[in-house]
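Q: I have 109 residues here and want to know how they pack in 3D. Can you give me a structure?
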Amino acid sequence: MHGDTARPASELEAQRMRDQWWRRWPRGVGAFSTGLYYPPNMHAPTDEVIAVAEALRAAGGIYVTHMRNEADDVLLSIEETLRIGRAVDAPVVISPSQMHDAGEFWAFG
């Protein structure tokens, strides 16, 4: 993306990212990891993540993520993460699994 990371990747750029992942697969890379909470990954729409993660399907790899949101929109982030895993038939790991300021969602009683 030549330093222009404040935008979604083009299909060609997503293909290059998949190709990079495949080149590393024989060397023991078994997962695709994203930090969607942090720049520059925060600019990647879900469809872009799915496009890059597609390499996991044939390889049997794992999708690992630090979700976009751990506060009020935590459920949306979990749904997004599961959607990505389902789209590429990959197991999912959410790390770290913490939630901040989730409002009254966690209030019991």
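Q: Anything worth noting?
A: Helices lie at 11-24, 46-53, 55-59, 74-87. The mean pLDDT is 82.
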